[in-house]
Design brief:
Structural class: mainly alpha
Radius of gyration: 27 Å
Shape: elongated
Distance between the termini: 52 Å
Number of helices: 5
Order of helices and strands: HHHHH
Largest sheet: none
Number of strands: 0
Helix content: over 70%
Strand content: under 5%
């Protein structure tokens, strides 16, 4: 296995553990302190994503038997990172929901008296559906990128196999030519 990959892997594992711990701790915070922690966590998520890209490039440059094992590990790391991103979204949306609720209660008291609870519930339901659709689009995009990466990898492997077959074919023809020449003698 590549020492470079192992170095990236070590860095990612440490960063992932710290991010997970920070997410748990941030869930109980409020206000500006929570916003600051979420900002720090997002920076860490960007760093983790960069490490995964570096590991991916390194893994793809190795021999096929080693590459397959490392790419399987990478899929697990990507899944772990997506779970962390979802957790951060959940924590942040809880923060946003409270802020939005406070704004509505403070600035819209007159509106709150005239608007029906039916309208508000429909609005909240529509907003939730919109958020879910956005999440599904992001997940689909992620799946599409992973599929594209897999396709590129398969095409690269097929190209290598084609080159090997062409080389074997040329070798067989060379041997056939040599046998023909030896029969002439």
């Amino acid at each position: 296995m590549s020492e470079v990959f192992e170095g990236y892997e070590r860095q990612y594992c440490e960063l992932s553990a710290n991010l997970s711990k920070n997410c748990t701790a941030t869930g109980v915070l409020h206000g500006e302190q929570k916003k600051q922690e979420l900002s720090d966590i997002r920076v860490g998520l960007d760093e983790a994503e960069a490490l995964i890209r570096k590991m991916d490039l390194e893994a793809r440059s190795l021999q096929p038997n080693v590459k397959a094992v490392l790419l399987a590990k990478l899929r697990e790391y990507k899944s772990d990172l997506n779970n962390l991103k979802s957790e951060v979204k959940r924590i942040a949306s809880g923060n946003l929901n409270l802020a939005t609720r406070d704004e509505l209660l403070e600035s819209g008291m007159a509106y709150a008296l005239t608007a029906s609870s039916d309208q508000r519930s429909r609005l909240m339901m529509t907003t939730e559906q919109l958020n879910q659709s956005s999440d599904r689009i992001k997940d689909s995009r992620s799946t599409m990128l992973e599929t594209e990466e897999l396709g590129v990898s398969i095409l690269h492997d097929l190209h290598s196999q084609r080159q090997a077959l062409l080389h074997a074919n040329n070798t067989v023809h060379g041997v056939g030519d040599n046998i023909g020449k030896s029969k002439e003698f």
